[in-house]
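A further point concerns the way the authors explain their paired sequence and structure data. Showing the layout once, in full, would remove most of the difficulty. For illustration, here is how one protein appears when written out as sequence plus structure tokens:
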Amino acid sequence: MSFPLPNTPLTAAEYLEWEATQETRSEFINGQVYAMAGGTLAHNAATLATGASLRQHLKGGPCRAFVSDVRVQVHSSNSYFYPDVVVACQPTELADPQSIALAEPKVIVEVLSPSTAAFDRGGKFAHYRLLDSLQEYVLIDPDTAQVDVFRRNAANRWELFPSMGASASVELASVGWVGVVGDWLE
């Protein structure tokens, strides 16, 4: 997790207006703005591979995959995040190509880095769990070739489906994608 920018608390509208003028992206959590750190080549490769794999798989269907520059809005915690990959399927959200955020994602993927892993697993996931539409939350660790898929079950509880090693299988049941960890690390 990056450190908050040195400013007074902002409203969500002020954050959106301010960020539109910035050269770098920042996340917003209930009034506080957090600068996002740059990623490594491995992080970028995993993001691109995951996004491309999901984009190809979803082609022709109702869902679309987006990478890095698409915000997710969590209304109930007054927050905006930039996941590494997000899948959305709601026609009303996808109808406006000028939209600034998705509020009903089906799948969110975060590629872990040493500086963000704890927040991605804890605090950020706590925010994402508030999204009723979210069915799967995926954490990719490119350093250890591990993918953890957290899937919401029928009782509205989150179950962990870990996959370790480049040849281990991974499934995103909510969008019908099956592959191996290595598909997302290239």
